[in-house]
Write a structure and sequence with these properties.
The complex is a heterodimer of chains A (about 130) and B (about 230). Chain A contains five helices and two strands; from the N terminus they run H-H-H-E-E-H-H. Chain A has about 130 residues and is mainly alpha-helical. Chain A has two domains: about 70 residues, Arc Repressor Mutant, subunit A, CATH 1.10.10.10; about 45 residues, no CATH class. With about 230 residues, chain B is α/β, with parallel strands linked by helices. Chain B has one domain: 3-Layer(aba) Sandwich (Rossmann fold). Chain B contains eight helices and ten strands. Chain B has a six-stranded mixed beta sheet with strand order 6-7-8-3-9-10, with helices on both faces. A four-stranded antiparallel beta sheet of chain B has the order 2-1-4-5, covered by helices on one side. Classes of the chains: A mainly alpha (about 130), B alpha/beta (about 230). At the A-B interface, helix 1, helix 2 and helix 3 of A face helix 5 and helix 7 of B.
């Protein structure tokens, strides 16, 4: 697997988002060991210095923890992970609302649209 | 560290390289980007000590570069200049006989990783596998500086990906730095710490890939185009 990165955002940022997404979805659980720097570099096709930065920033965000000689782990602080989940939600909502407002949609239209979308998606599964 | 100062190279009346300053630090990956004929390969050869500057200097760890600097510098040419009747394992033997810092075990591991058969003759290898074999013997050296001239050029996407992964797996970035010339920027951008634009023999710009994306909101290819205008 190599990743197609968005052109206008730093690669380390996109990898943090990716790992944070995997943590929130439960693919990576609290206390899980993250891949070694080299392993993740090879997996993603990204420079090892960038991966080191990803882990450093995740530590500063308190969503990962490095243990000397052992590697980097997903935090076991579930409160923080809950908070991360909320943060990501708000972030995505903000993007969505911003884009929709730019296109001229009102809040009511957005909410209607979301409900309708969900309903249609639900129907299509039947 | 490789330090390039006021570097100039003339071929008869043509200035191939003009007034280039640049520094290569340990542990980083540099991409020298630009069109064909921009002077990228000439710059790389000057850094490797394979050709002499007309003016200015290249220093490797403080010493002026010469052909003897090969003990500090691994260089991979973009040409296919191997004896075609050699087997891959004989190419490994040849490198082993030439370079004291050649790590046989690493070479074998890289060939395994890239699925190249050591018993195959070079002449029978596909273009992709020849590219992989060249990379393997080059990066099996424990030289502090590895200079790769167009390692991805003319190879298909699968081979390009495996070469990028081979570099990430086997180069020791605690001890080594890598300089890569390329005009195939997309595949190599995530591998780079810094990008350097060479245009008509001059250095137009140098910046870290993170900064280009963070502050200019551009990927390296768009940044290159913007600088060429």
């Amino acid at each position: 697997m190599t990743i197609d990165f968005q052109p206008d955002k730093p690669i380390y940022q996109q990898l943090i988002d990716r790992l944070a997404g995997e943590i929130i979805r439960g693919i990576r659980k609290p206390g899980d060991k993250l891949p070694s720097v080299r392993e993740y570099a090879v997996k993603t096709g990204v420079n090892a210095n960038t991966i080191q930065r990803v882990y450093r920033e995740m530590e500063q965000m308190n969503i990962a923890q490095s243990r000397r000689g052992q590697g980097t782990f997903v935090t076991e602080n579930t409160e923080r992970l809950q908070e991360l989940r909320e943060q990501m939600k708000e972030e995505y909502i903000e993007y969505f609302v911003q884009d929709m407002s730019d296109l001229g949609f009102s809040l009511e239209e957005m909410m209607e649209g979301l409900k309708l979308h969900q309903k249609e998606k639900g129907d299509s599964h039947d | 560290m490789i330090e390039v100062q006021q570097l100039e190279k003339r071929f008869l009346a043509k200035k191939a390289i003009q007034n280039i300053h640049l520094t290569i630090e340990t542990g980083r990956i540099y991409g020298i980007i630009g069109e064909n004929g921009s002077g990228k390969s000439t710059l790389l050869k000057l850094m490797a000590g394979l050709i002499h500057p007309s003016k200015g200097s290249v220093k490797v760890n403080g010493e002026p570069v010469t052909r003897k600097s090969a003990s500090h510098i691994g260089y991979m040419t973009d040409r296919d200049t191997f004896y075609p009747y050699l087997k891959v394992k004989e190419l490994v033997d040849f490198y082993d006989s030439q370079f004291p810092d050649f790590n046989r075990e690493r070479a074998q591991d890289i060939l395994d990783f890239l699925s190249v058969d050591p018993d195959e003759k070079l002449t029978n290898l596909s273009k992709g596998n020849l590219g992989r074999a060249k990379l393997a013997v080059t990066i099996a050296r424990e030289a502090p500086f590895l200079l790769l001239d167009e390692p991805l050029s003319g190879l298909d996407p699968m081979v390009r990906e495996s070469i990028v992964k081979g570099i990430l797996q086997f180069v020791d970035f605690e001890q080594q730095s890598l300089v890569i010339t390329t005009h195939e920027i997309r595949d190599i951008e995530p591998l780079l710490d810094e990008a350097i634009i060479i245009h008509q023999g001059r250095k137009l710009a140098q910046q870290s890939v993170d900064d280009i994306r963070e502050h200019q909101h551009l990927d390296v290819e768009s940044w290159l185009k913007k600088n060429m205008k």
